[in-house]
Design a protein that fits this description.
The two termini are about 20 Å apart. It is elongated and about 50 Å long. About 80% of the residues lie in helices and about 0% in strands. It has helices at about 5-30, 35-60, 70-100, 105-135. The protein has a single domain (about 5-135), classed as Up-down Bundle (Four Helix Bundle (Hemerythrin (Met), subunit A)), CATH 1.20.120.80. By secondary structure, it is mainly alpha-helical.
Length: about 140
């Protein structure tokens, strides 16, 4: 398996997830539950593909060192730290949010979705930012 393609695939999945989340939000704000549900289930699917790919990559390849120096290092590690903490938190939040919708508990679904959506968006967007910084702007030396 060529592991070098996985980070690019992961960034693509995060980008698609972001677009699906924003589109799903648009649909629910315009009272189109069916389109909202399709977008959110698709976002769950792309995020799941991301997670499987991410775990596979890091199992086999280990960590990738950040190549930036100077002022950008604390910026990168601040983004990485907040991203990592919220990426861990988002998994149970998404599962509970989806479960409540699946059970028709839309009032409690709505209450938790107000937290889930912005956190999920943050994780997806910062995932792409981390990818760009790590693989394109400041790749590791050597």
């Amino acid at each position: 398996m060529n592991l070098t393609v996985l980070p690019h695939f992961q960034a693509s999945m995060n980008t698609v997830s972001t677009i699906l989340l924003l589109t799903g939000f648009y649909f629910i704000k315009n009272d189109n539950r069916s389109a909202h549900m399709k977008c959110m289930i698709s976002a769950l699917g792309t995020s799941s593909l991301f997670l499987v790919s991410y775990l596979t990559y890091h199992y086999y390849a280990g960590t990738t060192r950040f190549g930036g120096e100077g002022w950008i290092r604390p910026v990168y590690f601040t983004i990485l730290l907040t991203h990592t903490i919220l990426a861990i938190a988002i998994v149970p939040l998404v599962l509970v949010t989806v479960w409540r919708a699946a059970k028709g508990r839309f009032e409690t679904h709505r209450k938790i979705a107000r937290w889930t959506l912005p956190i999920w968006l943050y994780v997806s967007v910062t995932g792409v930012i981390i990818y760009c910084m790590l693989y394109h702007l400041y790749p590791p030396a050597g």
